[in-house]
Amino acid sequence: MEDLLNPIAEELENMAQVGDLDQIWSKRKAIVALFPYIVWQDQGGNRRVVDAFLGIAKTPKIGTLLAGPITRLFEEASPDSTNRLVMLLSPYACWGSILDGNTATWWAAAVTAVPYTEEVGQSVVDTLLQIVSEELCMYIPIDTWAWLTKRPYLPPICEGRLVGTMSRVVRRVRELGDVEILESYLLLVWSEYDTIYLSGITEMCASIREDLGGIGMGRHREVLIDRLDHILGQLDMGLEYLEQQNPDLEEYHVPEAKAQYKKLKRVLLEVDRETLEVLTRMPFKMINSFNLLTPVDDHRIPLNVHLCAPSPVSVVVCPRLSLLDPPTPCFICTRVPICGWSQEGSQYI
């Protein structure tokens, strides 16, 4: 058997390395027929042939053909068997149309038994977003959602990232009430290779205003703005550049994606500006008593107020100075003219 499987593994590796989709497609019947033996080899610990097969299975058309056998594997397997193989193949299963809540529950239990790797993380996040898009989210525990915070790199062609921008997915993430998961989710589904469902755009804008607004959310907004800047820079490279990684993109993709991601960035900047306006009008004692400032805000607010706020403004320019003991000179205040600003309420300015 080993003499037979080694040449098969070598052939699969060569096909995956060359990346000739026509050649892979011509071998589709043999690849699908090989699947039961791959499961057997995985149970026996033959990682070479399994990994070679997985490299071919990730080809979109082949993954679709394997959906039926993979789904049967889910129906027949137990949580203690072939966990790694199941995790890596789970993005290609027929979620929603065939697999139900019981399977989603079993899948979530299997996730906890698999050590994290970048490859496993990609498959888990991809599958999770597909499951939630099929309204099976009630079967997913919060521990599984936490895999989003690992932020694995999702490949250019990723079904979960596409369907993961549906409004019902955005709403479910918001309902978790965890800002770290929300930020990670947005960083993962925002991509130059995918546009966003229109209903999802509306829900994301609402989330930015309602979940990421306010003083203490400044660092999250900054991270998201950086991500959008990167995506818009990639889109500026044009369709021909993007097609090198995702040949399925259409001519309309670049202008549509640009419009969507510019809108999201505009909303983030508006929320940032509104937060700054609140700061310039809020008494210092109120800011401090509600613990609204993060360490990032402490350094960011004075410069932002000086550069952006209309003059004259209140002494909220350096709200933390009165907390310093002994008084410490403020770099920004000592280097920037503050003529005409009231000093009332802070002896150190």
Quick recap:
The protein is an all-alpha fold and 349 residues long. The chain has helices spanning 2-18, 21-26, 28-44, 47-57, 60-65, 67-76, 83-89, 101-111, 118-133, 142-145, 159-163, 167-175, 179-189, 198-211, 218-235, 239-243, 253-281, 284-289, 295-308, 331-335.
Residue fraction in strands: under 5%
End-to-end distance = 81 Å
* Mean of residue pLDDT values: 76
Morphology: globular
Bin the helical content: 55-70%
Number of helices: 20
Query: What Rg is obtained from the alpha carbons, in whole angstroms?
Result: 26 Å
- The succession of helices and strands, N to C, reads HHHHHHHHHHHHHHHHHHHH
What does this structure look like?
With 349 residues, this protein is mostly helical. Helices cover 63% and strands 0% of the residues. It has helices at 2-18, 21-26, 28-44, 47-57, 60-65, 67-76, 83-89, 101-111, 118-133, 142-145, 159-163, 167-175, 179-189, 198-211, 218-235, 239-243, 253-281, 284-289, 295-308, 331-335. Helix 3 (28-44) runs antiparallel to helix 4 and helix 12 runs parallel beside helix 14 (198-211).
Annotate the secondary structure layout.
Layout: H1 2-18, H2 21-26, H3 28-44, H4 47-57, H5 60-65, H6 67-76, H7 83-89, H8 101-111, H9 118-133, H10 142-145, H11 159-163, H12 167-175, H13 179-189, H14 198-211, H15 218-235, H16 239-243, H17 253-281, H18 284-289, H19 295-308, H20 331-335
Key terms:
20 helices, 349 residues, mainly alpha, 63% helix
